[in-house]
Write a structure and sequence with these properties.
Length: 346
């Protein structure tokens, strides 16, 4: 409960001190600056092969293991952090920023983040990133359709599919063997029966998820209590205590009623930010669109991450989505009032 309370304090703090268009811009700059630092640390780890102190890769017996975790405990958490930031950076670069120098800087940082994402070989997060690109292209075409956008939207995927062999060769040249093997087997992500046999991570997750659903059923769907799923897994002899699925963590720990409330809130944030992005312009539209896409693809990403209740970046995105709604409400009212004609009382 302490961790959950801390995250609520984070949401309150962001909405208390950044409640203006200027504050929104400063918060985006803070996100970009933090992302840059974490990416630099990740690339340094990639080049040197030296993992940081809190990295779980230090526990492996093999020296110089190919993975990277940057400031996080494991590769999945690092990949989840990347996927929570990349939509904002991409849309900020291509939809808002006009200064060439800053645009190039954010673009380079974004592409470096994409490379780090592939280097982690987190299949769920890579899939989430691909879905973001598709959703972003569809949104752009529907909002302002042009022949060029339509050709790119349909032509680029077909081009990639037609040259999938060359793409795999390119990935094999720039990625370590372990990462390449995991990414090339992403097709197994859609076939759990094969995945359990060929990849132990799928089998472990399947066991954890089934156990979690058993705990939930035994609690009459009211939940077993905050943080208790890890205690139960430890008591039942699981080598991995965390359920490794944020949605199941909420459902099993807090029960079906709280889970439905959380899903309702989550859906509201997505829909409201889509509406804001559609009817507004500038930084409001860009951030709202990024919020909606990030929350949407996080549905997939959160299905593979370790415990997210303490994951500040997840709650920061929720806070940013709420902040955008509040700022839009004020700005929309101001814009509307400026267009109301003055009527004399005489």
């Amino acid at each position: 409960m302490f961790l959950l309370t801390s995250m609520f304090v984070l949401i309150w703090t962001i909405n208390r001190f950044f409640l203006s268009l200027k504050g929104l811009f400063l918060l985006v700059e803070l996100f970009i600056g933090t992302f840059f630092i974490i990416i630099v640390l990740g690339i340094y780890e990639m080049i040197t092969g030296v993992h940081y102190k809190r990295s779980s890769l230090n526990e492996l017996e093999v020296d110089g293991y190919w993975g990277i975790t940057s400031v996080f405990h494991n590769q999945n958490d690092f990949a989840t952090y990347l996927i929570l930031n990349l939509p904002l950076l991409f849309l900020y670069t291509f939809s808002y920023e006009r200064k060439i120098g800053r645009k190039l800087f954010v673009m380079v940082v974004s592409l470096s983040g994409v490379f780090c994402l592939f280097y982690t070989a987190s299949r769920a997060n890579i899939l989430a990133f691909i879905i973001f690109l598709l959703c972003s292209a569809c949104y752009s075409v529907v909002r302002k359709p042009t022949l060029g956008k339509i050709l790119i939207m349909f032509g680029l995927p077909l081009l990639l599919i037609a040259n999938i062999d060359r793409l795999l060769i390119l990935l094999s040249m720039v990625l370590p063997e372990g990462a390449y093997n995991k990414i090339s087997s992403m097709i197994l992500f859609f076939d759990p029966s094969q995945a359990v046999e060929s990849d132990s991570s799928f089998g472990t997750r399947d066991e954890l998820w089934n156990a979690g659903l058993d705990y939930l059923q035994n609690s009459f769907f009211l939940g077993i209590g905050a943080g208790q799923v890890e205690v139960y897994n430890a008591q039942n002899g699981f080598p991995v205590h965390n359920i490794h699925n944020w949605w199941l963590e909420v459902l099993v720990n807090f029960g079906l009623p709280i889970f439905l409330l959380y899903v309702s809130m989550y859906s509201y944030l997505i829909i409201k930010n889509v509406i804001i992005s559609w009817r507004s312009e500038g930084i409001r539209s860009t951030v709202a669109r990024a919020n909606a896409f990030t929350l949407l693809i996080y549905i997939i990403s959160a299905a593979s991450t370790s415990s997210a209740i303490h994951f500040a970046m997840q709650w920061s995105i929720v806070a940013l989505a709420i902040l955008t709604i509040r700022i839009d409400k004020v700005e929309f009212a101001n814009e509307h009032s400026r267009h109301i004609p003055y009527v004399s009382q005489d």
